[in-house]
Structures are given as structure tokens and as C-alpha cells.
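Good morning N.,

You mentioned wanting to compare the apo and holo forms, so I went ahead and generated the holo version with S-adenosylmethionine. This is what I fed in:
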Amino acid sequence: THFGYQDVPVEEKVKRVADVFHSVAGKYDLMNDLMSGGIHRLWKRLTIDQSGVRRGHKVLDIAGGTGDLTRKFARMVGQEGKVVLADINDSMLKVGRDKLLNSGVTGNVEYVQANAECLPFDDNTFDVITIAFGLRNVTDQNAALASMLRVLKPGGKLMILEFSKTDNPALTKMYDFYSFNILPQMGKVIAGDAESYRYLAESIRKHPDQETLKGMMDNAGFVNTRYQNMTGGVVALHTGIKP
Ligand code: SAM
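and this is what came out, ligand included:
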């Protein structure tokens, strides 16, 4: 049986999300590579290529976890820029921090424990904000969109990389089977935790589809909102600009 996590009280979802990521933090990168067959690297690469991040920029990577995007952005902004890797979960943040320090990223990255729903930054601070595979874990997604809009500079860009809805029924069937059968098994064998991966599959299925998320961004006040499907809609990259 599945969690049905969106039918449970808010505090329950918050606690489950916290438990999942405390549990998987140490194995997160390995599982990402195995579960996606390495394709998550391509999805992230496409996101970085379209970010427009330049030297001197200030970038916020919220729900940044183990820092894949932050590491690339740190190189792009140079020492005169800044990247903030923010995550609600201190276990994920610690794994990310250790990984980046070990790969020689220092001087222009800040690590901040923060909730996307109420970001602890001044208005109009960032040139670019990314949230990769994070929004579906956030309880109040509209509050998170409003908060991200507030801390973006006018003209700044929000990029949301997230699992989405496939348009092809055969692909959807395969994908559901994979998510609810193979994925939890892999979680059990490799990370000793089937429940966390069952939660992930469930959270993907419940996440708003492409058009719904685009509408939420419009309602929050973003302009030029658009999305681009990757891998047949398994993943979508939504972007929007702060007017
Ligand atoms: N962005 C990284 C990546 O693409 O590999 C990590 C993605 S991981 C699947 C999701 C992350 O979202 C976790 O590290 C989790 O702690 C974080 N998260 C969940 N809810 C959050 C919230 N309300 N605010 C900030 N981060 C949150």
C-alpha cells in the first residue's frame, strides 16, 4: 500500500519528507544515478545550459540537497558571484557541503538551512533561483512560489526542474511499473529503505502536471512562464521571470 501522503495532515507530510531525506542522505547520489540510469545528470545539464548564469551572479539553489547544481553554478559565477545552497534538511545539507568542499568548491558558496515556503533572504536578492526535484516535497507550493518571487531580482529567473506527466500511455504504464515496483525494491536492496522510495514514487504521481504548475506560476505573479518536457514528459523544466 502507498502512503497517500497528500491526504494526511500537513505536519505528517512535513515529518515524512524529513524522515525520507534523513534516511536517504548518505546514499542519495548513488541512488540517483542507479534509479535514473544516470539520466538525471542530463536533465540537470540542460537546466544549467538554459540558466543564463554568468560571472558575478547571485544564485539560489533551493532544495539543493547534495549540491549537483550548486557545484556547476559556483564555477560559472566565479569568486565575484555567490551561490546559496539551501535545503530544509540538515542531513542532505551536510552531505552536499562535504561533497562540494571535497571537490574544491570554496569561497563563493553559502550553506543555509531554510524552508522554501519562507525564505530567509532580503527582497530582490537573486539573479537566478533553481529548485530541482524539490517542489513536489514542499507542503505549501503556492507559498514557496510567492517566497521565491519575493527574493528574485526584477528580471530574475526561476527554474523548476521536476518530475511531471508523460503524454504517452505506454510510457506512462512502464514508468508506473518502474516507480511502484522496481524503484522500492532497489531502495530496499541498496539503501535498506523501501518505504522512502515508495514515498518518492507516490509524490511524483501526485505532483501537478505541466499546465497546472505553469498556471500556479502565473498566479504567483511570474511572467513569460513556459515549460519544456524532457524524456517524454517524465521530467519538465518550468521557467518564469519576475516582472
Ligand atoms: N536538488 C537536489 C537534486 O536535484 O539532486 C536534491 C533533490 S531531493 C529529491 C529533494 C530535496 O528537497 C531534499 O534535499 C529535501 O530535504 C528538500 N526539501 C523538501 N522540502 C523542502 C522545503 N520545504 N524547503 C526546502 N527544501 C526542501
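Residues 1-5 have pLDDT under 50 and may be disordered.

Happy to go through it together on a call whenever suits you.

Best,
F.
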